[in-house]
């Protein structure tokens, strides 16, 4: 794919023209209040597997939206006795938590890590929330109402995962970072925007879930195409759909981020177009930086950017 979005100099200034819901902050305050009414009750059970010699891994559960038990992993350097900074990481679309073996990068660099499983998406955490008509995937689950929308539940889980990490006795709660790629990047933006000063650093890679209206207008790739498919069958629902999506748009949540941020994107990304990512990035008022990988699609900076992230974490966390 050749360059298809705005020129880079225009992207660096671009902001979404879409209005923010007038009750955006009260909507999320109420959502987080409802979530906090359930016990966090974070539990960490040691994984008994002698395959892991240089790290200690724990099976995690904690109370998310609606009190639903959310699964995850907690991983730290083997035999750790210190209060370490912790990286809370979120997963890509339709992915599950896998095994601890899939998440060794941060512990091998000397950090602890909490990996949040994604409700309903192929891991071990179901989605107990209400739903209605939808097309395949999760983008339109409950989209007829902001209160019932799938990503309201998932974003609340993401913020709660920060609390779960902070509750661990060997985590320095003053030094928590959030990260993830694609959907995980969108969840990192949401967690940083909703958890406020509980998050010190925000590191989203090729983030999904930003500037929906533009995304569906300029690409026909999945998962954004799920929204297009829904609107093909619900022609009268355009306003309802985009009104709902506005509450879970990274563009609006980015305005609330206080954490120092480090973004990445691929300039040829046909899954999460560069303009949708810059629309969120340009709304962040805190200190920030971004890496642009000119000739990459949704893979972004790959392992090269992984090294950049470790350096950023070491310097700032």
Structural summary, described in words:
The chain is an alpha/beta fold. The chain has a single domain (8-316), classed as 3-Layer(aba) Sandwich (Rossmann fold), CATH 3.40.50. 33% of the residues lie in helices and 20% in strands. It contains 11 helices and 9 strands. A 9-stranded mixed sheet has the order 1-2-3-5-4-6-7-8-9, with helices on both faces. A hairpin with an 8-residue loop joins strand 1 and strand 2. Helix 2 crosses helix 4 (150-166). The protein is globular and about 55 Å long. 50% of the residues are buried. The model has no long low-confidence stretch (mean pLDDT 96).
Order of helices and strands: HHEEEEHEHEHEHHHHEHEH
Helix content: 25-40%
What is the H level of CATH, i.e. the homologous superfamily? Alpha/Beta hydrolase fold, catalytic domain
Give the number of DSSP strands. 9
Domains, number = 1
Looking at the structure, the CATH topology is Rossmann fold
Structural class: alpha/beta
CATH C-level category:
Alpha Beta
Rg estimate, integer Å: 18 Å
Please, how many helices? Answer: 11
Shape, principal axes of CA atoms: globular
The CATH architecture designation is 3-Layer(aba) Sandwich
Which strands sit side by side, in order, in the main sheet? 1-2-3-5-4-6-7-8-9
Mean pLDDT: 96
What amount of the residues lies in strands?
A: 15-25%
Give the CA-CA distance, first to last residue.
37 Å
* Poorly predicted regions: none
